[in-house]
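Q: Got a minute? One more chain.
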Amino acid sequence: MALRLAVVFPGQGTAGGEVSGEVAEVVSAVTGGGEVPYQLSVFASSVQTLRELEDRGVEPDVVAGHSLGEYAAAHAAGALSLEEAARLVAERDRLMGQASQQNPGGMTAVLGADPREVVEAVAEFPEAEGIVVAANFNTPRQVVISGEEVALEALSRRLGGKKRKLDVAGAFHSPLMLTASMAMEEKLEAAQIRDPEIPMVSGVDGAILAKADDVRLALREQMLSPVRWVAVVERFAALGVEEIVEAGGGTLVRMLRDFKEVGMMGRAAKEVLS
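A: Always. Here it is, folded:
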C-alpha cells in the first residue's frame, strides 16, 4: 500500500518558535526552567507544529528528519517519547557546542554544482590544507561542505556554482564532531527507544527504519555521516508518497524544486494550518 503523506522535520539553521502545553512543560523540565538550548528550541517547535497538524487531522504515513530533525521524526514515529527525545536533543546541543569550541569550523552550501564534482574535489583536497568533507547532499543541485574555515574557503574557490555560508555554530557532519559523536553514542545506548509505529526514513542512507536498533544506529551515525536528503526524497518516491508536509518554515519543501523527476507536492505547515 502506498504511503501517501510524509511529514518531515528541519534541522540546524531553522528558528525555534513558541511552544505551549505538554511541549513547554517537557522543555522546562529538561532545562530546569533555564535558558533553552538552540537545538532543543528547534526540536520543541517542530513537535509543537506536529501537534497542531495532528489536531487538524494531518496524520503522517511516513516521516523523516534532516539532521537534528531526525529526533523529531523519531518522536513522531513513536520510537522516542517526548521526554527522552528532548533530553537527548539537549545533550546533543551541549556536546556539539563543546566540539565546535574545541574544533572550530563552519559549513558552506554549494549551489548549482554537480554533486560528483564536489565529491571528487573533496577526495582530492590535500590533507595538509585542512579538514573538509561533503556533509549534506540536499538536492541534485545542492551540496553542503563542512570543515575548517581555511579549508572551506580553499575548496570553495575550486568548485563551480554559487557558494553561501551557512549560519551554523560549527562543522557539523564532519570529523570535527568526533568527540561529540562518541559521547552521544553513550547517551543513545542508554536511551529508551521503541520500534517505530510508522515508517521512518533515515537521513543517513534513505533506508526504512523499522526497529528500535535501526533508529538507535541511525541517530548515532548521523553525527559524522553526510545527510543524504536526496536518498530520503527518492525513498519517498519509491514508497508512493504524494505529498510532503514540513513541520518547519519550508526549507525542505522548497528543495523539492530541484527534483525535476519527482512529482510530489510539498507544503510548509503554515500553509496547511492557515
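A: Residues 105-165 form a domain with the Alpha-Beta Plaits fold (CATH 3.30.70.250).
Q: Perfect, thanks.
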